[in-house]
Design goal:
By secondary structure, the chain is α/β, with parallel strands linked by helices. It has 7 helices and 6 strands; from the N terminus they run βαβααβαβαβαβα. The chain has one domain: HAD superfamily/HAD-like (Rossmann fold, 3-Layer(aba) Sandwich), CATH 3.40.50.1000.
Length: 147
């Protein structure tokens, strides 16, 4: 088995859950571990409720079963850039996110297999210094081919 660890964002990446689940059924065997890292503020009651709903959504849509994980493999942070130290500590080797800002922070910590999923072009413009450090993908079929 590979020693690669795949990290995934929820919003913007797993939203098209049917396509994501189909691809992840195949891709999970290429990684020793899959984790999910998402930004949801914990500083408010609304943020705590959002975390709870996110965990329930992952379960209801079948991500835990498909990936062979449970909620202990899901990590939340308060700011987008806070995903980077979590991923470093969990030895993530590959990460898929829809924000170049996040991938730039991961690149700065030495993670090199970075995939910008269906990017928001205004956000890309603000972080364009990292664009040549990532692979832009528009859908899960492209990710499946790459991995």
């Amino acid at each position: 088995m590979s020693n690669r660890v795949l990290g995934l964002d929820i919003g913007g990446v797993l939203n098209n859950h049917d396509e994501a689940l189909s691809a992840l059924r195949i891709l999970k065997s290429r990684f020793s571990k899959v984790i999910i890292v998402s930004r949801v503020s914990a500083l408010t009651d609304e943020g705590l409720e959002h975390r709870k709903r996110s965990l329930e959504w992952l379960d209801r849509k079948g991500f835990y079963e498909t990936l062979g994980i449970d909620s202990s493999n899901v990590y939340f942070c308060n700011e987008h850039r806070d995903k980077a130290p979590i991923c470093r500590d969990l030895e993530v080797t590959d990460f898929v996110d829809d924000r170049l800002e996040v991938l730039g922070a991961l690149y700065e910590l030495g993670i090199r297999n970075l995939f910008l999923y269906n990017p928001r072009y205004l956000e890309v413009e603000r972080n364009k210094q990292y664009l040549d450090k990532v692979k832009v993908v528009e859908n899960w079929a492209e990710l499946e081919e790459i991995f």
